[in-house]
Amino acid sequence: MSCLFCKIVDKEIPADIVYEDDAVLAFRDINPQAPNHLLVIPKQHIATLNDLSDADAATVGLLSVTAAKLARELGFADSGYRTVMNCNEHGGQTVYHIHLHLLGGKAMGWPPYSSTLKTAIG
Ligand code: 5GP
Ligand code: ZN
After folding, report:
1. List of long-range contacts for 27-34, beta carbons under 8 Å, 24+ apart
2. Domain 4-121, second-level architecture
3. What sign does the CA torsion over 22, 58, 42, 51 have?
């Protein structure tokens, strides 16, 4: 299996793991975009959101439940945070094993495009 995140699940590649159970792994992003930037992934390999089936609903739901628990444990649940899943090229996905980004510890902008682009798209 050549998938980077499967290798992290299998402990073939080191990661700063903050949570693990039978179905889910959470670890710190190697290039953090916030004081706390975690990736919450299913241990099962699913390449993109487009590859989900109805049978994956519980697994994907666990990612959000785990992210919310971690935000509480890490102390930024009340101040707030963002969860994001990117899909394919236009979504900005670079690792093709689904992952929920959990970003917390600073105020983030919204919407996620520049004022220049906003003008361009009207
Ligand atoms: P995506 O762009 O696919 O939504 O997010 C992939 C994330 O994985 C990026 O934020 C990137 O920094 C992170 N990442 C890529 N390679 C590694 C790695 O080897 N270890 C860790 N911990 N994070 C990684
Ligand atoms: Zn994988």
Report:
1. 29/101, 33/103, 34/103, 34/104, 34/105, 34/106, 34/108
2. 2-Layer Sandwich (3.30)
3. positive
Give catalytic status of residue 99 as yes or no. Answer: yes
Residues paired with residue 41 on neighbouring β-strands, in sequence order: 25
For the Cβ of 15 lying below 6 angstroms from any atom of ligand 1, the answer is yes
- Cα separation of 64 and 73, whole Å? 14
Atom of ligand 1 nearest to the CA of 15: 22
Domain ranges of the chain: 4-121
Among protein residues, the one with the nearest Cα to ligand 1's atom 13 is 29
User: What does the pLDDT profile of the chain (122 residues) look like in tens digits?
Assistant: 699 999 999 999 999 999 999 999 999 999 999 999 999 999 999 999 999 999 999 999 999 999 999 999 999 999 999 999 999 999 999 999 999 999 999 999 988 776 666 555 55
32 lines ligand 1 (CB under 6 A): no
